[in-house]
Amino acid sequence: MEYLNAFLCGGILCAIGQILIDRTKLTPARILTGYVVTGVLLTAVGVYEPLVNWGGAGATVPLTGFGYALAKGVERAVDESGWLGVLTGGLTATAGGITAAVVFGVLMALIFRPGDKR
Q1: What CA–CA distance (Å, rounded) separates 60 from 66?
Q2: How far apart are CA 101 and CA 109, in angstroms?
Q3: pLDDT in tens, 65-85
Q4: Is 89 exposed, middle or buried (0-12, 13-18, 19+ CB in 10 A)?
Q5: So what's the pLDDT on residue 118?
């Protein structure tokens, strides 16, 4: 059942993004940024945690999950370090994912020829 929940949750989040791309004039970059901010806001009001509990990886892997990780990292760091945690918590919580994205991006750029599509 966990796999089905993850599939449904992630699929719904991705379908919403596709609908936004198809039906609005929003650029993909704005939609991606909106997803991260939405994840932070939903975490702040306590709505995203139950979604993570239900959807598992379907809720934590998409960009809303990145916003969730940022918010949870800040919350944890503020509890441990006070207001300094506002500046350090998000990066500490997401450092592994950011590092992986940079490393794999560089590897793909070395293996394949990056460039504009024509």
Answers
A1: 7
A2: 12
A3: 889 999 999 999 999 888 888
A4: buried
A5: 66
Among candidates 63, 66, 71, which has minimal Cα distance to 14? 63
Q: Structure tokens of 1? A: 């059942």
C-alpha–C-alpha distance, residues 115 and 46, integer Å:
42
pLDDT recorded at residue 41: 94
CA angle 12, 104, 2 (to 5 degrees): 30
pTM of the model: 0.78
Q: Which residue ranges make up each domain of the chain?
A: 2-111
Q: Work out the angle at residue 101's Cα, subtended by the Cα atoms of residues 73 and 81, and round it to the nearest 5 degrees.
A: 20
- For 76, counting Cβ atoms within 10 Å of its Cβ (0-12 exposed, 13-18 middle, 19+ buried), the class is middle
Return the percentage of the chain with pLDDT > 70, whole number.
98
